[in-house]
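S.,

Sequence below, as promised.
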Amino acid sequence: VTKDKIVAVVRMMNGKVHRVTYEGSLALDYLEPTAEDVAHSALTSDVNFNVTGGSINAYYRGDYFGKGVDVWFLHMVENTVGGYSGGYLMMDLMVDKSEGGYDNKDAFVGVYTKADNTTESYADHFAPGYMRVDYTQMHTWFVKGMKSENEAWAPFVDGNITITKEGDIFTITMDGIDDKGNKIQGSFSGTVI
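The prediction came back faster than expected:
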């Protein structure tokens, strides 16, 4: 990369090498999501998962979407040898502000359905997964094999998410579909770290 040039050498799986050169302005505008932004599942069939002993990170985002509800972003990682490999989930959950916001670490326990443009009250909904034009996975996703290579990934676009708590253990149960109609079903149990 230089001031006005990018050169990439790409080696294909079949061994062929391609050289790609771009010359011109390297100034890039921010990519705003557009109506063409769609989710992209890599699943070729239904998936079932059952993870126990995982780690859950819970981040309070306040009224992140501007819909009058609190948003909790959760991401869960299966505790396996070698770090972040195995099952991985992420989701944006919308919770009624009366649940206590940041001060209530159990506020996201409940049952969630998909939010969309027809939703009137956003409490108790999840934001469905999609991929932005810059290939950022947004909102609610299932991923298998995160550390070196992802074996499978899929946006969770419709269905139910149920979160329960017993002692210090949270259980997240998902029953829904990706953007290709593949079923995503299973549960993830673990502690919030």
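The radius of gyration is 19 Å.

Coffee later?
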